[in-house]
Design goal:
The complex is a heterodimer. Chain A is mainly alpha-helical. Chain A has a two-stranded antiparallel sheet. The longest helix of chain A is centred in the N-terminal third of the chain and has 29 residues. The radius of gyration of chain A is 20 Å and the shape is globular. Helix content of chain B is 88%, strand content 0%. The radius of gyration of chain B is 18 Å and the shape is flat. Classes of the chains: A mainly alpha, B mainly alpha. Chains A and B meet through helix 2, helix 3, helix 5 and helix 14 of A and helix 1 and helix 2 of B.
Chain lengths: 354, 69
């Protein structure tokens, strides 16, 4: 199986898995013991497990390999969660674990396909937003039976099994490294992701009052994520992300009421996603799964600012403006000018000899 | 041999962790989690996330040291 076919299956699976998880969560909290269960708590638990545990599944996948098996097990768990629709908290834990495992399988695969390119992780992550939209739409408009979730998940679990595991290549960063603070660029990148999570959670678009409008917004987010990697491979990572963030600043801070302006802002803002994931992986050479998981841990930490009731503070236009500008500055300093990595021929040669 | 043992150990830990998580929460479902304060639970989960972030930082430091060699 070619690598690109593998990526296609993982990306399509990402849409299905995110859609299935969203469906399980929304259906379980509405059909479960709704008088006893705090709906938002189940969703918070699901998000926490799905995002915060990923680095550790990633570390595991880097150690044992077999990303296909991890992703397949994730699909089984997500499918299994559909059998627990009457127990929202159990469904949240099962779906969360399954989601985390699938993401690590696909994320590590997409990162390891070609360590010089940010396009592949972008293509893998992008369909997730569409899956969430479809899941939410189906939960509100269709009567869901568990087998409608279990069957696609079983098929996906079988579908990802033949995709071969790609090992992490030994890479060498050719960019200038900060010798005094070697961990600083990584920290800045993770902070950018955290801020992106906060800003992404406070976006309030008054025009998004119909399903069509919500679909257009979702497609714009997915397109931004997918195009970010492709554009950065073409124009350079630092140039693409910093310019995109600077352009998105006024659009997201002051023009959320306008359809075209806010769509443009959302598109530009999401261009940074693929680059941050790839850059984090570049700084943790040989640990792509762990690196992918770190980005989701940063995302959930950012989301907790919203869970703790800080949404109104961060939703203020000037705060949004300041945070996006801060993100642009941090991206500028964390990505080297040449912003790419070369596979170290010397290292590979040494390994072959060894 | 050592590698195989490591793989088996990791797999076992993962499976056990999953079982514990799922059964604990399932029991909680029967008991009724609504008794717990939502705000307090969110705070606990936030602290869990911070603890996980701390462990992740420790792993990063180890990887950085390993890659520097």
């Amino acid at each position: 199986m070619s690598k690109k076919v593998g990526l296609f299956i993982y990306s399509l699976g990402h849409l299905l898995v995110d859609g299935a998880c969203c469906l399980v969560m929304l259906v379980s909290v509405s059909t479960g013991k709704s008088e006893l269960v705090n709906v938002s708590l189940a969703i918070v638990i699901y998000n926490t497990i799905a995002f915060a545990i990923q680095p550790f599944f990633g570390f595991l996948s880097d150690k044992i390999g077999r990303t296909n098996l991890i992703a397949s097990a994730g699909c089984i768990l997500v499918g299994g969660s559909a059998a627990l629709l009457h127990l929202p908290f159990a469904a949240a834990v099962t779906a969360g674990l399954g989601n985390a495992m699938y993401h690590i399988g696909g994320g590590a695969y997409s990162l390891n396909m070609n360590r010089k390119k940010a396009a592949y992780p972008g293509i893998f992550v992008a369909p997730g937003a569409i899956g969430l939209f479809l899941g939410a739409y189906l939960a509100n408009h269709v009567e869901i039976k568990p087998f409608l979730i279990i069957l696609p998940m079983i098929l996906l679990a079988i579908g990802v099994l033949p995709i071969p595991h790609i090992t992490c290549e030994a890479v060498n960063n050719t960019g200038k490294q900060n010798k005094a603070f070697p961990g600083l660029p990584l920290l800045l990148l993770l902070l950018v992701i955290l801020l992106r999570s906060v800003i992404g959670s406070v976006g309030d678009f008054p025009w998004k009052n119909t399903n069509t409008a919500a679909l257009i917004l979702t497609l714009t987010i997915a397109l931004g994520k997918a195009c970010g990697g492709i554009l950065s491979d073409w124009l350079g990572r630092r140039k693409t992300t910093v310019i995109a963030l600077l352009l998105s600043t006024p659009l997201l801070a002051f023009c959320e009421a306008g359809v075209l302006t806010s769509l443009a802002g959302v598109f530009l803002f999401n261009l940074t996603m693929a680059v941050t994931v790839t850059e984090v992986a570049d700084r943790l050479q040989g640990y792509s799964g762990f690196a992918f998981g770190l980005t989701t841990l940063a995302l959930i930490l950012g989301t907790y600012f919203i869970y703790m009731g800080w949404k109104d503070f961060f939703a203020q236009p000037w705060i949004t403006l300041a945070l996006i500008l801060l993100s642009a500055v941090m991206m500028f300093f964390s990505i080297p000018v040449d912003g790419y990595i070369k596979i170290s021929k010397e290292k590979s040669h040494e390994k072959k000899i060894a | 041999m050592k590698r195989k043992l490591l793989k088996a150990l990791y797999s076992l830990i993962t499976v056990v962790a999953m079982l514990v998580c799922v059964t604990n929460i399932a029991s909680a479902d029967i008991v009724g989690p609504a008794e717990a304060s939502g705000g307090a639970l969110i705070l606990i989960l936030a602290l869990v996330c911070l603890a996980l972030a701390g462990i992740a930082i420790a792993i990063i430091v180890t990887i950085k040291k390993k890659n520097a060699k």
